[in-house]
Amino acid sequence: MNSIDEIIELYKREIDQTLIDASLQRTVEERIQALEDFDQFREELRDAMERRRDALR
Amino acid sequence: MTRFGELLRTLATAGVEFIVVGGVAAAAHGSPRSTQDVDVVYGRGRQNLQRLVEALLPHKPYLRGAPPGLPFRFDLETLRAGLNFTLITDLGWLDLLGEIAGGGRYEDLLPHSITIAAFGIECHVLDIETLIRTKRSAGRRKDLEGIAELESLRDRQKRL
Q1: What is the mean pLDDT of chain B?
Q2: Looking at the complex, does the CB of residue A37 fall below 8 Å from at least one CB of chain B?
Q3: Taking burial as the number of CB atoms within 10 A of a residue's CB, which of A44, B10, B103, B107 is the most buried?
Q4: Which residue of chain A is at minimal alpha-carbon distance from B122?
Q5: Domain coordinates of chain B in residue numbers?
Q6: In sequence order, what are the beta bridge partners of B89?
C-alpha cells in the first residue's frame, strides 16, 4: 500500500455512512436536485450575511 | 447558483455528445458531497462542437473568473483552438473538458459510462470505478477525501 492509499484508508474511517445511506435511498434525479437545493441554500445564506454586514455599517 | 438539471437538459436536448464526470457524477452515484459546477467531457468532433455552440450560446457562456469585457467568443473556432473551458453561463457553472487525466477523451470514456434518465432526458455518467481511477490520476490533494467516500460508496453498493 502506498502513502496515498494509506491516506485514503484513514479518510474512510471518518466517513459518515448515514449520509451515504440516506443518499442511496434517493433516485439519481433527487440526488442531483439536492445539489441544486444546497447551492440555492448557500446563496441565500451568503445574501443574508451580506445584508447583516450592510446593516451593521 | 447552478441549475444542474437544466444544464444537463440543455446539452442533451441539443444532441451534444457528453459524459458527466466530477462532482455531479459522484452525486449521481450516491455521494452526499456538494459541488458547485457541472463537469462534462465532450466529443471533439466538428459537428459536436457546433452543437455545443448552438446549445450554450443563448446562455451567454463566458470564462469563469476572467475580468468582464474580454473579447471572448464562444464559437467553433474558439472551441477548436482550446480543449478545456471553465465557463459561467446564465444556468450556472459549467466545465467543458476535452479530456481528463487517467481517462482520456470522450471516445475513451464512453465504454466506461452508464446511462441515466433524469430531468426528462438521458445522459451518460462516468461509472464509479472509472470516476475513482480518474480522481486518483488527477493526484489532487482535495480529491483524497472524495476518493475515500467513493470507494466506501462502491463497497456499500456491492453489499446491497
Answers
A1: 96
A2: no
A3: B103
A4: A29
A5: 4-159
A6: B92
Question: Distance, in angstroms, between A1 CA and closest chain B CA?
Answer: 14
Domain residue limits, chain A: 3-56
Q: Side chain identity at B137, as an amino acid letter?
A: S
Q: How far apart, in whole angstroms, are the C-alpha atoms of residue B123 and residue B138?
A: 24
Gap from A55 CA to chain B (nearest CA, Å): 24
User: What pLDDT does B112 receive?
Assistant: 98
CATH topology of domain B4-159: Beta Polymerase; domain 2 (3.30.460)
pLDDT score for B47: 98
DSSP H or E run through B131: helix B128-138
In contact, B137 and B102? CB cutoff 8 Å: yes
pTM of the complete model:
0.93
Helix (H, G, I), strand (E, B) or coil at B21: strand
**pLDDT tens string A1-57:** 788 899 999 999 999 999 999 999 999 999 999 999 999 999 999 999 999 999 998
> If pLDDT is split at 50, 70 and 90, which confidence band does B141 have?
confident
Q: Name the residue of chain B whose CA is nearest to A44's CA.
A: B1
Mean pLDDT for B104-120 is: 97
The Cα of B30 is separated from the nearest Cα of chain A by a number of Å equal to 5
Residue with cell 451593521: A56
Top residue of A11, A32, A33, A47 to mutate, by most chain B CBs within 10 Å, is: A32
> How far is residue B30 from each of residues B70, B126, B138, measured CA to CA in Å?
39, 13, 21
